[in-house]
Design brief:
The radius of gyration is 36 Å and the shape is elongated. The protein contains ten helices and five strands. A three-stranded antiparallel beta sheet has the order 1-3-2. A two-stranded antiparallel ribbon has the order 4-5. With about 220 residues, it is mainly alpha-helical. Helix content is about 60%, strand content about 5%.
């Protein structure tokens, strides 16, 4: 009996009563914390990339002349046939060609895959075949960058081709007469002939590519 009394004097074991139970501690949430940090880093990286891209877009637009900016706008509007501020593969190809960039199919598709987005159905009752489309803002940025990267000689030779009807490789008096008429310039025959004579270095009665380049690069 004494033994029983002695045992009752010992403190109860942990877990045997509410007083002896160890306090429960919350387990550290390392996984959730790491995931949140990774999400925050990704969000910050996307924001940084977006800011850098917007700065590059502004810089490219600021370096263009007003005439070049207007050409980009007009090319897009001309070939945006359904006027939804987006163009598909065929419209993009001809719009870029109008601006002097005749690209192969693979390069056009690469531009759409990198910068474009899939079309959305306009009517849920009609079967929809998604197409890659390029929005005006992306078109504007891409064309600005390409125009700025272009060799100025290419621009001059492109202008030469507008004068050189039939691809003769020379601009003669008939070409000048035609262009003056199209532009509404009332130049006299003597004035046109004097222009040819002034820049015709080899005295063949016409201005060739090299002579035209020299005139424009001065």
């Amino acid at each position: 009996m004494a033994s029983s009394a002695a045992h009752s004097a010992f403190p109860p074991r942990y877990g045997s009563s509410a007083l002896g139970k160890l306090p429960e501690r919350p387990m550290p949430t390392f996984g959730a914390s790491t995931h949140q940090q990774r999400t925050d880093l990704q969000r910050a990286e996307r924001a940084r990339e977006l800011k850098e891209r917007e700065e590059l877009e502004r810089e490219a637009q600021n370096q263009l002349s007003e005439e070049q900016r207007q050409e980009i706008v007009e090319a897009f509007k001309l070939f945006d046939l359904d006027k939804d501020q987006k163009i598909d593969y065929h419209e993009l190809k001809v719009a870029m060609k109008a601006l002097g960039f005749d690209l192969p199919k693979a390069e056009i598709l690469s531009i759409l895959q990198t910068h474009g987005s899939l079309s959305e159905p306009s009517n849920p009752n009609i079967p929809h075949h998604p197409r890659l489309l390029l929005a005006f803002k992306e078109f504007q940025t891409i064309m600005a960058q390409r125009i700025l990267a272009r060799d100025p000689r290419e621009e001059i030779l492109r202008a030469f081709e507008l004068f050189d009807e039939g691809g003769k490789g020379k601009i003669n008096l008939d070409d000048l007469r035609r262009v003056a008429r199209e532009l509404g310039e009332g130049l006299e025959e003597e004035e046109l002939a004097a222009m040819i004579e002034e820049f015709d270095m080899d005295s063949d009665g016409a201005i060739n590519r090299e002579e035209f380049l020299e005139i424009c690069m001065q």
